[in-house]
Amino acid sequence: MEDEHRGYFYAPGTTTAMMGGGTWRADVQASQFEPFVRGESHLVTSEDDARTYTAMLESETKLATKVFAERGGTSVLRDEAGNVYMASGQVYIYNASGQQIGVVEIPERPSSLALGGADHHTLFIGARGSLYSIRLASARK
C-alpha cells in the first residue's frame, strides 16, 4: 500500500481534528475517539497491521508510538488496574506489560468495547448483532 500524505481532518464548525492518511486510514476505520493531550499516552489498535500500540502526542503534528502487543483489533481499552481488553476475534485480556493473561469468548465477533455501569465495573462488548456484558473485578478510573 502506498504511504499517502498524512494530514488533519476537522469536524465541521469545530477545532476537533483527527489525523488521517498514510496506511492508517483512520478516517475510514476509527471506532473509538479519545482526546489526546500532549504528554499523555493512550492505546491505539490497528486490525490492518495486527498490532496494538501505546501512543503519545509529542507535538501538534507528532504522534510517537511503540508496540504494546502483537495483536490488533477493532477496539481497545484499559481498566484502572492496568488490564487491557482488546476486541480481535474474541476479547483478549493483557496485563500492563503487554502479556496476554486471558480471553473472553463470545459467540459473535466483537467490534467495540466500553466500560460502564454505575461503578464502571461492567465491560460491554458490542458484536455483529448483539450486546454482551461481563462484570469485572477492576474498572477504569
Can you describe what's shown?
The protein is mainly β. The chain folds into two domains: 1-30, no CATH class; 37-135, Neuraminidase, CATH 2.120.10. It is built from one helix and twelve strands. The chain has one helix at residues 26-29; strands spanning 6-10, 17-21, 41-46, 51-59, 62-69, 75-78, 84-88, 90-94, 100-104, 110-116, 122-127, 131-135. A four-stranded antiparallel sheet has the order 6-7-8-9, with no helix packed on it. Strands 3-4-5 form a three-stranded antiparallel sheet, with no helix packed on it. Strands 10-11-12 form a three-stranded antiparallel sheet, with no helix packed on it. The chain is globular. The relative contact order is 0.13. Mean pLDDT is 81; it is low at 24-31.
In CATH, the homologous superfamily of the largest domain goes by the name TolB, C-terminal domain
The main sheet orders its strands as 6-7-8-9
Largest sheet: 4 strands, antiparallel
SS element count, helices? 1
Oligomeric form:
single chain
Low-confidence stretches: 24-31
- CATH classification class of the largest domain: Mainly Beta
User: What is the terminal separation in angstroms?
Assistant: 39 Å
CATH architecture of the largest domain: 6 Propeller
Annotated CATH topology of the largest domain: Neuraminidase
Measured by DSSP, the beta-strand proportion falls in: over 45%
Q: Percent range for helical residues?
A: under 10%
Overall shape: globular
* Coarse structural class: mainly beta
